[in-house]
Amino acid sequence: MTGTDFRKIPPQPLQPIEFTVPGVFETTLENGLRIVVLQDNRLPLVSYRLAFNWGDINDPTESIGVTSAMASMLNEGTANYSSRQLADEIERLGASISVHASDDFTVMSASTLSLYSTEIMRLVAEMTLRPSFPEDELDLYRRNTVEHLKFQRSQPGFLANEQAARLIFGSHPYSRVSPSAEDIEKLTREDLSIAHDLAFIPNNAVFIIVGDVDREEIVRQIDDLFGSWPKSQLTEMAFPEFAGRNRRSLTIVDRPGSAQSNIVLANSAIDRKSPDYFPMLVMNQILGAGASSRVFMNLREEKGYTYGAYTRLDAKRLGGDFEATAEVRTAVTGDSLKEFFYELDRIRTERVPDEEMSDAKNFLTGVFPLRAETQEGMTNLVVNRFLYDLPENYLQSYRANVEAVTADDVQRVAERYVRPQEMAMVIVGDAKEIIPQASSYADAVEIFDTEGNPINVSDQEAAAN
Amino acid sequence: MSEAFKLQPLDIEEYKLDNGLRVVLNKDNAVPVVSIAVYYNVGSRNERPGRTGFAHLFEHMMFQGSENVPKAGHFQFIMKAGGTMNGTTSSERTNYYETLPADQLPLALWLESDRMRSLAVTQENLDNQREAVKEEKRLRYDNQPYGQIFDLINEMIFKNFANSHSTIGSMEHLDDASVEDVQEFFRIYYAPNNAVLSISGSFQTEEAKKLVETYFGDISSQPLPPELDVNEPIEIANIYREWEDKLAPFPAFLIGWKIPKRRSPEFNALYLAGKMLYDGDSSRLYQKLVKGDESVIQLFGFTDERRGPSSIFIGAIPKPDKDLSKIRDVIMHEIRDIAANGPDPKEMQKVSNQLVNDAVRTRQSSMSRAQHIAEFALYDGDPNFFNTELDELLAITPDQIRSAVDKYLNTENRALLDVVPAAKG
After folding, report:
1. Closest-CA residue of chain B to A285
2. Burial class of residue B194 in the structure, from the number of CB atoms within 10 Å of its CB (0-12 exposed, 13-18 middle, 19+ buried)
3. Do the Cβ atoms of B32 and A18 come within 8 Å?
4. H-state helical runs in A372-406
5. Interface ipTM
6. Quick one: which of A171, A183, B127, B297 could link to A240 by a disulfide (CB 3.0–4.6 Å)?
7. Domains along chain B?
8. Which of A82, A117, A154 has the most B C-beta neighbours within 10 Å, making it the best mutation to test the interface with B?
9. Which pLDDT score, from 0 to 100, does residue A464 have?
10. CATH of A25-226, one of 3.60.21.10, 3.30.830.10, 3.90.1110.10, 1.10.260.40
C-alpha cells in the first residue's frame, strides 16, 4: 500500500503474548483459618484481606446495622490501643487498614510498604482479636452515622437504589441498603460484641496476602498472631424468599427541582455461582456494560439523552439483580424509557449477530490481564474466587468460560433474566414532570418523598395537569 | 524512613519526531499489557470568553470519528480488542488514553494518529455531544448537593479569566459553540508539536518506534498556539460569598487560598502541610474536628495543581446547629500553629512514609506510568522528573513547610464560600 492507504483499515495485532494467571499457595491453620499467599515481588508492596463469610444480611433482627457498625468500630480502640493511637500508628507507617461489611461479607483490607509488613500484621491481629468498642467512640459513631444517613438522602443515586432493592428483594435482607436512624441509635456495646463473636471466627475466614513477602515467613507470622484464636461454631441463618413480582411497577421518588431523572429498571437475576453467570456476563456486555454497548450507543451516542446509560449485573452470594440505569434530563424521561424497553426487548427476541458476540467476548477476555496489572487488582481477583467459593481453577479457566458462551446462551439467559414486563421502574426526580411521561409504562404508580414517606399520587397528578 | 529504601528508577526514553511530536517510552514487560496516552497542551485555561466548557466539549468530539474511523468506532475498536480507554479535560491539558493487551499497540497508535490528523466534525455529532456534555454537567454538578462549590470558589480565588472559569463551562456557552469553533480549535491546538505521546508497558522498543513513525510521522506540524498569560496578582478576587444550594441538606463551607505553581518548593511544602492538616484519621483537623470537638460530619481538603498560580482548599460539612465560625477558628488555629512552630518530627516521618507509599503505588499500572511521564514531559519538558519527584518532596524541610504555611495560608487573603441550604418548596 502506498501513501495513506494503510490507514484505511485497522492494523493487525502483533504477536500475542500469553498471560499466565499466577498460582496461589494455600494452607489452613489448626483453628480452620485458611491462608492464601500470592507472592508478587514486582514492587515493595503488600496487600492483605482478612475476609469473613458474614455480612450485613446476618444482622440479628433486633440489631440491624450491627455488622457494619462492628466493622467500622474495629479501628476505634482495642485492648492495647486507643482510636488515636491506632490512627497514628497505621498512618505513621504510610499504610492503611480499613474494615468494611457488605451484604455478604466483612473484609479487613490492609496495605503497606513491604518493609512494614510485620508491624501491619500485628495491628491487623490486634484489631481483629482484641477490639474494645469504647463507649465514647460508639456514641460518636452513632451520632455521625445518623447524620450520614440524612446526608445520603440528598443523593439521587442512593434514593433510587433504596427503592429498587426494596422492590426486588422484599423481606429478604438484601432489600436493606442502609439501616435507619432508629436502628443505629439503639445499638449497644454488647450488640457489637455479640456481632463480633458471631462474625469473627477463624473457621469462617480466609486470610489473603498478595505481594512482596516471603511465603514461609508470612505463614509463620500468621500462625504466631492468629494460631490461638479459638475455633467456633458457625451460626446458620435462614432467609426469606425475594419479592415475587408479576407485573411492571412505577415508583417515583419526588425530588422537586431536580435537574435530571435517575432511572433504575430492575428485576431479580442470578447468584454468583449460577451456571448462567458467564452467559449473563456476555449478555450484559452486549446490552449495557460499557461505552460500546447497545444502551449507551442508543441513549447517549444516538439520542444525546444522557451522559451514560448502562446495564448492570449484581450477582451476590444468595441471589442478585439485573438493572438498567441512566441519569437523563427530565424532559426526556419518557423517551428514555421507550429506548430502554426497546433494547431490553430486542436482546430477548433477536439473536445477537456473530460479530457483536465476538466483540463482547474479546473485550471480556482481553481486559482480564489488565485487571491483574496492579496488586490491588490481582488481590481482588483472588479474594472473589475465595469469598464466593468459586472453582479452584476459576481464574485460569475464566477466559475459556467466556469463549464458550454462544448466541443461543445469550438469548436464553436474556429471556430468563431480563424481564421488562415485571420490572420495577424507579425514577428519582421531579414527580410532577415525570408522571405524565412515565405513567403509561405501568398500571400503577407510587410516589415517595426523599425521606421515604409515601405521597398521595392524586395530589401529584393534579400538580402535573 | 529507612535510608536503605530506594525506588528503582523507571526506564524512560524520550525523543521527538520531525513534526515536533514528543514521544516518551517506558518499557516494563511484567504483564503483557500496554498503555498509550496522548496529552495535548490545551485545557480550559486556553478557552476564550464566551466559550467556557469548549475544551471539554471538544474532547467529546474526539470520539466522534475521523477520516478512517467511524463515529463511535473508537470505543468499539478498543473494546473489542479487550482494552479500556477514556479522555479527560482539566484547566491544564486534555488527555486521551488506552490500555490494551500488548499485541494491540498498533491499533491504539492507528486510532490516536487518525484523530490527530483528520478529525471529522459534523453539525449532527456536535449537537449530540453538546447534549451529552450538558447531561454530564447536570449529573456531576447541577444535580449534586455541593456539586458547584469548587467552580464557585475558583471564581473567588482567581482574577485572570484563564484561571477563574470552570472546565465544565456554562450551558449558554455550550449552546453557542459552532462547528467552525471546533475546526478552529482543532487546527490551533491539536497539532503534533503541541502534544506528547507516551507508551508504557510491554513492547519491543525498535518495533514501537517504527510504529510511532509510521502512524504519526506524516502529520503536519502547525504554528504553535499563542502564548497564554496565566499570571495573577497575589490578592484573591473575592473574599466572601454566600451560596444558596437547593440540594444541600446541611450548611457547609469551603475556604480557598491562592498558592504558587506546582512543583515550586512552596507548592510542595503546602502539599505536605495539607496532608498533615486534613489527610487521614490521624491528621490534625480530623482529630480536632471529627474526633475532639465532634463538630463536623465531613472534612475534606486538597491542592489543585496548575502550571501557574494554584490553590489549596479546606472544607467541612458541620453537624446541625454547630457554629461554623468556631470550626473555621479551629482550622485557622492549626494553620497558625504550623506557621509558628512548624510540623513536629512525627508528622514529618508519617508524611515521608506516605509519600513513598504513594510513589510506589503510582508505579503499579502501565496507565498510571504513561500518564505521569506524559504530564512531566508536557509541563516540565522532562519525563524523568517522574523518577525524581519523590526525592524532591522528601527534601522539603520542616522550616520550608512552616514558612510556606505562614506566608500563604496564615493570611486574610483567602476566599470563604458559605453554602446555605435553600428553603425547600
Report:
1. B79
2. buried
3. yes
4. 375-387, 394-403
5. 0.90
6. A171
7. 12-216 (3.30.830.10), 240-421 (3.30.830.10)
8. A154
9. 61
10. 3.30.830.10
